[in-house]
Amino acid sequence: MSHIKGKGDVTVAAKDLLSEGARLESAEKLTAIAENDLVFEWSKKKVLILRSSIKRKSGSLQRPQRQALDKAQLDSHVGTQLSGKDILLSAGKDVKAKGTAGHCR
């Protein structure tokens, strides 16, 4: 995940521009320009949680009776975030946005 931030105008330009879960911030004008396609997508994050538990027999010197491993996987999505006083998006072909938030101040 990328984070671009500027105190003045911020311009991002490319032949094809793809952003997955990035944060683009400008204190003034934010401009994203693509010669062909400009695509803002969400990014998928995976979090794996492992928990081990041991059950013991009575008496602290006994060997473990059972050991269990619990695991859970959580998927979360982070969208592209755009913010600035003015936001300009321009593409020669397509502008596509999924899971994107824009905030003009």
Q: What's the short version?
A:
Helix content is 0%, strand content 71%. The chain has strands spanning 3-6, 10-14, 17-20, 23-26, 29-34, 38-41, 43-56, 64-78, 80-84, 86-91, 95-97, 100-104.
Features of the shown structure:
105 residues, 71% strand, elongated, mainly beta, single chain, four-stranded parallel beta sheet, three-stranded parallel beta sheet
SSE inventory with pairings:
Blueprint: E1 3-6, E2 10-14, E3 17-20, E4 23-26, E5 29-34, E6 38-41, E7 43-56, E8 64-78, E9 80-84, E10 86-91, E11 95-97, E12 100-104
Parallel strand pairs: 1-4, 2-5, 3-6, 4-9, 5-10, 6-11, 9-12
Antiparallel strand pairs: 7-8
The structural class is: mainly beta
Helix content: under 10%
Biggest beta sheet summary:
4 strands, parallel
Roughly how many Å apart are the termini? 23 Å
Radius of gyration: 23 Å
Poorly predicted ranges (pLDDT <50, ≥5 residues)?
none
Which term fits the overall shape? elongated
How many DSSP H or I helices? 0
Helices and strands, in order, run as EEEEEEEEEEEE
Number of strands: 12
- Portion in strands: over 45%
Biggest sheet, spatial arrangement of strands: 1-4-9-12
**What is the averaged pLDDT score?**
83
Give a verbal description of the structure.
By secondary structure, the protein is mainly β. The chain contains no helices and twelve strands. It has strands at 3-6, 10-14, 17-20, 23-26, 29-34, 38-41, 43-56, 64-78, 80-84, 86-91, 95-97, 100-104. The strands form four sheets. The protein has a four-stranded parallel beta sheet, with no helix packed on it. β7 (43-56) and β8 form a beta hairpin. It is elongated. It starts with a strand and ends with a strand. The relative contact order is 0.29. The model has no long low-confidence stretch (mean pLDDT 83).
